[in-house]
Amino acid sequence: MAAAETLIQKIGKAVKEVAKTRSSEWWYTPHMAAASRAIDERIPLVDLVLEVRDARIPLSSEYLQLRKFPSSSRRVIVLNKMDLANRPRIKEWLRFFQEQKCMAFGVNSHNRENIREIASHPNIYVLDTPGVLPPNVIDDGICSKLALTGAIKDSVVGEIQLAEYFLSVLSLSNEYKKWGTLPGFETRQLLSNEGISNPDNRQKRQYPTDHTQDFIVNNVRRTLFDTVSSFSGCIENGKDLARLIEQEFEVLLKVFHLPLESEESSYCRAATKLLNLYRTGRLGHYTLDSLPSNGPALSPLL
């Protein structure tokens, strides 16, 4: 991922700049501050802490404030959104947490089989908290991962930069290689299906996009496969990677059948659609955090 370092730094800088100009309340909102105070007060009262993290970023989504509490409490790390993460990588993370003597499980909160009702005999009291970011803006890498996974508003960084970051992740991974058997992109098919929509699909959308039909998703996959596979440069090189990303954007404009507008407007619309497909798991499964070589210092809540 060294070739994507420039994009990561650019996104991190954008987040820090906005946080600086909009004051700390933009990043660390009053409701987050209130939640943090409540956690401080209630941790000594609980027998078990369930720390819910994002399976796509098992380390970057850690709640650092838990590190300051004594080991008298017990913690379980719950990696949510398993359906969007790379399963082999998550298995490695679960083994890592176990080696650190920390209980960890992977779940998909949208799957009812992963959710169990809390018993009432004996009484079990649950103290829930909202998602909380660190009080201070963190390093570029964590900022970038939080932004790409949707924990930070897209408008802070810009959809185009986030889409470029995702394309760098995709191009440097093996996910796109799975799409080589898909049929090639057919302009006629795209045009003939223009305007067709499914009301049921619209209700399930989490991000604003009109291009979630299966045939369009398959066109996106196959087109990205062809573009990366036929690229003659070295994608580990920063300049070559930037050139590849530009080519990927150009073909995505055609696949999404965007009307002719200003280049920035068209790129922004393509980026929004691409991010939607990534965040709903339709362009592969990714775990952005790499296992630390020496292991991070985990919270003493073990």
TrEMBL record:
Entry-linked InterPro entries: P-loop_NTPase
Keyword NAD annotated: no
GO terms classed as biological process: mitochondrial translation
Superkingdom, taxonomy of origin: Eukaryota
SUPFAM superfamilies: P-loop containing nucleoside triphosphate hydrolases (SSF52540)
GO cellular component: mitochondrion
Keywords: GTP-binding, Nucleotide-binding
UniProt-recorded Gene Ontology molecular function terms: GTP binding; GTPase activity
Name the record gives this protein: DAR GTPase 2, mitochondrial
